[in-house]
Amino acid sequence: MIPPLRRKMFRDLLRLWAQVLAIALVLAAGVATLILGNGAYSSLHETRARYYDSYRFADVFADVTRAPRALMAEIAAIEDVLAAEARIVKLGLLDLPAMTEPGTMLLVSLPEGGARGLNRLHLRQGRLPDPQSAREVVLSEGFARAHRLRPGDSLAVLMNGQRREMTVTGIALSPEFIYALGPGEMMPDPRRFGIAWLPRPGMEAAYDLESAFSNVVLKLAPGASVDRAIEALDRLTAPYGGGGATARSDQTSHAFLDAELRQLSAMARILPPIFLLVAAMLVNITLSRLITLEREQIGLLKAIGYSSRAIAQHYLEFVLAIAALGIVIGLAAGVWLGAGLAQLYASFFSFPFLVFTRDPQIYGVAAAVSAASAAGGALFAVRAAIALPPAIAMSPPAPADYRARTGFLRRRLSLRQTDVMILRHLVHWPLRTASGVLGMAMSVAILVASLWSFGSIDHMIDVTFTRAERHDARVVFTDTRPARAAYAMRQMPGVLAAEPFRAVSAQISHRNLSRRLSVIGKPETPLLSRVLSPDLRPMTMPEAGLIVSEALAEALDVRPGDRVTVEFLEGARRTVTLPVSGVSLGYVGLGAAMELSALNRALGDGDVISGVGLLIDDAERDAFYAAAKDTPTTGFVTVTALTVARFKETLAENITIMITVYVALAGIIAVGVVYNFSRIALSEQGRELASLRVLGFSRREVAGILLGELVAIVLLAQPLGWFLGYLMGLGMVSAFSSDLYRVPFVIRPDVYATASLIVGAAALASALAIRGRINNLNMIEVLKTRE
Amino acid sequence: MAIDGKIIFRTKGLTKIYRSGAQEVHALRRVDFQAARGEFIVILGPSGSGKSTFLNIVGGLDTATAGKAWFGDRELTALDERGLTRYRRDHVGFVFQFYNLVPSLTAHENVALVTEIARRPMSPDEALALVGLSDRRDHFPAQLSGGEQQRVAIARAIAKNPEVLLCDEPTGALDSVTGIRVLEALTQVNRTIGTTTLVITHNAAIREIADRVLRFADGRIVDETVNAARKSPAEVSW
């Protein structure tokens, strides 16, 4: 048999179902975000780990100009190296009839041992090429899909200036290119960048690298020192044009994936506490009201011998039942959304499989934390019920004792009596008012903290592509060329202006801090590829000295005037000390710029350049693309408009999904808070409001009193919500910023307005839901009953 | 139908049936009634006799199942919800057993609540003076005794200068001494501003202060007495 108190609890749950559901949904949002964030994070983390492990993803990567294969014995002998693999890795240009714009193909030689090397391929379709074939190729899946290529199809690639017709034998994925970012791009674009794996002989011939290699990858023993291995490798490869090895943590694909995972875990840390806090506040105000209403019943129960403990347990059970509902909904939503999110990531990043981690510990933690926050919210209310002596409980409560604390406001504002009622009621229940305001503010804050990214990205694009990098296209040569190559480029069809640059990879150090990056040499007053000061003014290149980006300045802890050590990793590999002449704005990567001839001097080179930025006549674009492709010295071409379009497109997809989720979450809070708040206000003031109806107040006027209170709460919540949202945004910016990119923190006024409008709409909707109850207030009941 | 200018309320065949499930409760059975301007009427009767239902319908709080009720020449039973609200707002003052003051407003503000929406109100201070509470104007309900609260409720009801004052058990929650003070306030108002007053009570002793006494039983008016001379509340003993 069910004990009567438990039966009462079930009936209370049914009777108050709408409020119960509203609270449960807020709790569920907390549980879901906890599971979603942690679940997607651990799924991706685990997937990546297992992928790396099974496909033997390398630990160290190094490019050389040309090294003899005989060097491999020495490299393999470096301490802690488990496996070393020599490869030929080169960029080719796509020559597809259906694509006029430039595209790049990364050509990677396959190990002779077939499938047994490092960075093994996961074949999706077809087979690996015949090791002796010079025409067979395996393509990366994203690229093959974007161009509808299947095994058996053919495609043409310009290798070292020569056009080669290839036959696709297979489609594959590689742990090395989970995030396949083309050279000079900001977002992966599988249409314009693909990876092709070919047997070695064909590549040796094409690039004149018989018995030589251009790239080496190492697998280290677990626990080995990566830095030491890199040091040893660099020593060995330096004479062969080694540009300095990178650790896995700096490998492009890995680093971007890492940044993404960090954002996920930031979300998992920021969001759930907000929901749990709001849920606890809702539990508190709802249960307090319930206990007030049931005061006489509590007294009666105590009078007939129920212990305070039994009564406390009864209300705790009520709250825990709400929590259980929230947990069940949250778990289901979290698992479902988590799988969806992981899938989304899996399709954005190229994984051959997805490991769903069903870590019971996360579920357990989510459930426990949610139940605890609900119980925490119930604590004060239940304590009040326990403290109530039965004799006092059974007599009706004394009328709420108001004091004129609002007189000054009233005199100043010449309020109507109904407004005074609203004001006094809000002041009389400061904790509840604060809970309502804080709850609504959280809802606004979540929106502000998610909506600002639009403006930030626009700002980032504006600064990066319309103010700083103003070229239409950029051609990077296969090798450094004499400066006059820029004049040759100027003569190409459609080219209106050409500006040379040089890029040299270098290790820049300051005290014990150091970073690897490309130092860019630019003309003294660059016109196409400008460097901007933090206040967005174009900077001129100093005669000697470096201009470092804010991110680099921070990473190296340098200020203008400090001196940094620059170890060039190309050519004669000189090491120089240069002053920091200025700090520049930059959102993508770490940046260091200097005057072109000063850079060449520092390197001990003549007047050489790496490529040119170009202004191109729109009408002759295609002619330019074709000419650039046919020029043997062209390493690759980036087109600003395409880069920006792809950047926006990718972000639009991801952000739209994210914003939808955030709006839904904020809506749940707003509806939960407003609905509970108004139900409680109605329960408390129902009698007053019905009395006013008797006195001749219209339905509208009476609803206006209750809604006025809600409006006050919602309005008070806005500035606080904006402020909290601003803080959350600030927190997110620092969580999202990495050496790869920084996010400018720009909140435009429309972000605040939109957040407020959305929350206002949610509040209005839930307020309208109780309008019917206000209209049906029973006037006759009021005349006959004491509260 | 011509209406005598002195008649303020009139009902004909007023019937109210409450239905709950298959069960029908006849709260009022064809009640015919009229009241003259300025009359002070006491309505007696046991619980469930229909007196409150009657008061609610003539007060515009409830609707009749059959029959008609007029206020002056306006047919109340033909008014919609908006019309009834207007009617209560402009013409009727209510006093309830449990005062129903707004706890967050002072005595003065509770009265002002009504004067703000009335067409031709007296000032809240004037209304409080009529019930002898001028010195308590800035007190909140929680700071007033039961009798004082009820007198504030009366002040609130009369402040709009209503044609009728409807009181349902106004002394029901009060002791006799306080009750007398409340009744004195009611008769005082009735005398000074000529408000037609209907008072429901369980307390038969009160009948002596009325011009006319109606007794309800089983949904009908079963007895009607006209007092030749009204006693003052202080002379009544209960």
Short description:
Chain A has 787 residues and is of the alpha+beta class. Chain A is built from 23 helices and 22 strands. Chain A is elongated.
Overview of the structural elements:
The complex is a heterodimer of chains A (787) and B (238). Chain A has 23 helices and 22 strands. With 787 residues, chain A is α+β, with helices and mostly antiparallel strands. Among the domains of chain A are: 90 residues, no CATH class; 122 residues, no CATH class. In chain A, strand 13 and strand 14 form a beta hairpin. Chain A is elongated, with a radius of gyration of 33 Å. Chain B has 238 residues and is α/β, with parallel strands linked by helices. In chain B, the strands form 2 sheets. Chain B has a 6-stranded mixed beta sheet with strand order 6-7-8-3-9-10, sandwiched between helices. In chain B, helix 5 runs parallel beside helix 6. The mean pLDDT of chain B is 89. The chains are: A alpha+beta (787), B alpha/beta (238). At the A-B interface, helix 13, helix 19 and helix 23 of A face helix 2 and helix 3 of B.
Over the alpha carbons, how many angstroms does the gyration radius of chain A reach? 33 Å
| Portion in strands of chain B | 25-35%
Number of separate strands of chain A = 22
Distance between the termini of chain A: 34 Å
Short descriptors:
heterodimer, A: 787 residues, alpha+beta, six-stranded mixed barrel, six-stranded mixed beta barrel, 23 helices, elongated, B: 238 residues, alpha/beta, Rossmann fold, six-stranded mixed β-sheet, four-stranded antiparallel β-sheet, 10 strands, 28% helix, 29% strand
Task: Chart the SSEs and their pairings.
The complex is a heterodimer of chains A (787) and B (238).
Chain A: H1 4-15, H2 17-54, E1 60-68, H3 71-76, E2 81-87, E3 89-95, E4 104-110, E5 122-126, E6 136-140, H4 141-146, E7 154-159, E8 162-173, E9 193-199, H5 200-207, E10 212-220, H6 226-237, E11 246-247, H7 252-293, H8 295-303, H9 308-348, H10 360-387, H11 390-394, H12 407-413, H13 417-428, H14 430-468, E12 473-482, H15 485-490, E13 495-510, E14 513-522, E15 531-532, E16 538-539, E17 546-549, H16 550-556, E18 563-568, E19 575-584, E20 592-595, H17 596-603, E21 608-616, H18 621-630, E22 634-639, H19 640-694, H20 699-736, H21 749-769, H22 771-775, H23 779-784
Parallel strand pairs in A: 4-9, 6-8, 14-20, 17-19
Antiparallel strand pairs in A: 1-10, 1-11, 2-10, 3-4, 3-7, 5-8, 6-9, 7-8, 12-21, 12-22, 13-14, 13-18, 13-21, 15-16, 17-20, 18-19
Chain B: E1 7-20, E2 23-36, E3 40-44, H1 51-58, E4 66-71, E5 74-75, H2 81-91, E6 92-95, H3 107-115, H4 124-130, H5 146-158, E7 164-168, H6 176-193, E8 196-200, E9 212-217, E10 220-226
